[in-house]
């Protein structure tokens, strides 16, 4: 039987759970709940597994941040595999890796993330241009979410710089819109592109959606980063009332620091799903 691709898994999981919520897995040893502190890396795996189990009824995707596993040294890669094994295969997994390098290095990154880890999607940097992204797009059943207008405070240092169009148009536009337009062209060729656009900048998110009406959007920044949920949802929805993933990490992972951490995480995910659905009018 053919394995489902990212878009099929996402559509199925989103429909079954009536959800646009993507749970981020960004575990930090020094922030583990009190009952798990001092348990070492194995406690981190237990924490992530219990978070997945508690939030599974409400999430249509998971987004492990590779940095928090890489920081654990050689053991981190095997721990990540254990966490990934706790996510049901029919639920899509986005590797939050933010990779970006020249072609042959990008191919190695793509092999590691898609073949070795078995993830369904990945976040990538666009700064090196098409040849730095193409190796990820070569996996037709996978998806590459290209960083466009990110949620961090310093995003505007480069992303808001005005640039001229290569076609000679008189009107300059911000760099993030130039990225969005170029990724839209790649999408027409490959069919497996998406964009990362932060909830902390809903006006910019709306501009991206206007220029890329059908691209999947991965939208971080709700919760700990201060993004306003309703504004982000309304800015990012496609014409069918979907087309976006609201990625929330810390507000779910650390909803409680005591023995009820898993229960609290599940409840936080349930409330977020409800709030997202209210904002989208469903």
Task: Give an account of the 3D structure.
- With 282 residues, this protein is an alpha/beta fold.
- It has one domain (6-149, 156-277): Aldolase class I (TIM Barrel, Alpha-Beta Barrel).
- The protein is 46% helix and 15% strand.
- It has twelve helices and ten strands.
- The protein has helices at 6-17, 40-55, 66-70, 74-85, 103-116, 130-137, 156-159, 175-190, 202-211, 229-236, 250-253, 261-280, and strands at 21-25, 61-64, 94-99, 121-124, 143-149, 162-163, 173-174, 193-197, 217-219, 244-248.
- Strands 2-1-10-9-8-5-4-3 form an eight-stranded parallel sheet.
- Helix 10 (229-236) crosses helix 12 (261-280).
- The mean pLDDT is 94.
Concise summary:
The chain is of the alpha/beta class. It contains twelve helices and ten strands. It has one domain: Alpha-Beta Barrel (TIM Barrel).
List keywords for this structure.
about 280 residues; alpha/beta; TIM Barrel; 8-stranded parallel sheet; two-stranded antiparallel sheet; about 45% helix; globular
